[in-house]
Design brief:
The chain is mostly helical. The chain has one domain: Globin-like (Orthogonal Bundle). It is 75% helix and 0% strand. The protein has seven helices and no strands. The chain starts with a helix and ends with a helix.
Amino acid sequence: MQLDNKTIEIVKSTVPILRARGEEITKAFYADMFERYPSVKGMFDMEKQKNGKQPKALALAILNAAENIENLEAIRKQITNIGNVHVKLNVKPKHYPIVGECLLKALTTVLKDAATPDILEAWDKAYNAIAAFYIEVEKGLYEKNS
């Protein structure tokens, strides 16, 4: 999925926010997702939720994707590493819309007025591109493991 220049520019403009508040965003993300979609809780290590490792790891993955949004291929190795974990947990394409919805809500919750319609629209497009890349990588991993 190719993103337009405006979307890339807006997503890249959020990198400083992600550096400063990424873990705050991902903690809000997980709280919301687990409350609204309790069925996905079993895919997560709750100890890593409590000790903060999972929110930190997700914050870094989001930051990495934002920094490389115009060329996700540059981070294929990191995405493959995450994808291997996803395959072990049986993450499927149907789970990605839940994550996208909860991520946009977390951005809105944490950033409040700074989460402008332009930023949310850009992140919606970017998330869909990122998710498509993860799904593609994971499809190959599932095929390799079958």
